[in-house]
Amino acid sequence: MASGKISPRQKMINMMYLVLTAMLALNVSSEILKAFYKFEVSMQSAGSNLDAANVKLLGAMDKEVDKQGEKAKPFRDKAYEAKKIADEFVKYIEDTKSILLEKDSKDGASPREEDGQLKSSKDMERAVQYFLENKDAEGGKDAKGKELMAKITETHEKLLALIEDPNDRAGIKSDLVCTDPEPNKEGEKLTWLEETFHSLPLAAAFANLTKYQNDAKKTETDVISYLSTKINATDFKFDGLSLSINAASASVSSGGKYTAEIFLTAYNTKQKNDVYVNGAVLPLKDGKGIYEITASGEGIHKYQAKISLVDPITGQPKDYTAEGEYQVFSPVATISASKMSIFYAGIDNPVDISVPGYRGNQISASCDNGTLTGTNGSYNVKVQMGPTRVAKINVVAKGDDGTAKSFVKEFKIRPLPPLAVTVNGKEGGGITGSEIQVWNFVNASFGPSFAYDGLTYAVTSYQCIVQTKNGAQPFSVTGPAVSPDLKAAAARCRKGDLIIFYNIKAASATAPAKNIDSGPVFRVQ
Fold this sequence. Notes:
Elements: H1 8-27, H2 30-68, H3 73-100, H4 126-131, H5 143-161, H6 166-170, H7 192-197, H8 202-231, E1 240-247, E2 260-267, E3 274-277, E4 280-281, E5 284-285, E6 288-289, E7 299-310, E8 317-328, E9 334-337, E10 342-344, E11 349-354, E12 363-367, E13 371-375, E14 378-382, E15 390-398, E16 404-414, E17 420-423, E18 429-431, H9 433-437, E19 442-445, E20 458-468, E21 471-478, H10 484-491, E22 498-507, E23 514-524
Parallel strand pairs: 10-16, 18-23
Antiparallel strand pairs: 1-2, 3-4, 3-7, 5-6, 7-8, 9-11, 11-14, 12-15, 13-14, 15-16, 17-19, 20-21, 20-22, 22-23
Helix pairs in contact: 2-3, 2-8, 3-5, 3-8, 5-8
């Protein structure tokens, strides 16, 4: 606020500004503040995951230095420099947060409520007065804001400078930037500081600061990951891993010993290797040769395998050979889950059961930890989550001569995965006005990788908050459709405004209903 002698007109303007600020503070509902707090907690959790990933990457690089010495050390040292740069930025933001909370931390008091939210979460002035209107700051009232911008830019440049190749450097897409936004529809041009802190409650300002801490950590991860790949740039390249089991024999007589070597195998899905079996070239899939024949003749069958690779250092081909074998035998029983090797709790799990040499009406099946229904080889198994996380399928096959054979198969019991909520197929993040215009439905699903194609959920209701610079507008919607009022309010948003979906309820005809507390969060671009 101005000080000294001011005109009656300026006094009136100042008074109106105070009244407007008070009205904005009153308009910030507890739901919005809680949404900002959940967003901050979510960002902190993501930051912890990034920290853990960076620790693993650095640990792996330390091991490479132990194995390879000077070849790996320059890259490892740069990786630790990246960590130092990011840590300094994160600490700078934490110190800034502490300054913003000094008013609430006097005499050792906690600045947060028992539920974790800021006591001054509604405060619309504190962030603005510190970053944009700080009359006590040296260098102008926005000196602290400019200091923050300079720190973001400096950290971004220092991290990317650790990558020497300009082409590789350009491949790092970092959000650790603070550029001014484009003018809005009315031609009004805001600065980055105004967009980030003006007319926002303290809870939103803290969420924004935490976001930039994560941007620094993510950029650190990208730089360290890049440096890690440079250690073995001239080595054989592998981008896939699979578990291999090498057994002396796949069949063992009763009382005998079964011995196998179990290890990880690395392979290159993109490299076109020459793979042979008994001199014949095999077709490739994901860099692996596929050997497939029709088995005939009971007993052990052996074959010779060879892979030819070009040495990345010498450029000369090099052959790797091995002998393989397989045994042909008459099948006994087959018990397999139609969809997965596990059972999901609370739903019907399709199971096909067959025993070669027996008709479907000669086979009976039961489940020791659930219910099994069906006939003639096609069944459904329904299990529930409990202290026992295993279900056994027991099969008895009776021949025409009255003799019976028994078989047992064990399955793990797992809960259904969490539902993913999308709006027109998008899970959140940046969104444009043209994308909002075509919003139709809020959907909930397990995603395309879920094995049960027929298991679907429909959104029965949800809540949404449209947070603009002028306040927040809540919506409660029944059904999956994006209501006209919500779409209209979202379409009026300007760059930087937030659209937050939460408290989504979904139902299924064949599975238990689901409640999703936090849904997609969109920031208008």
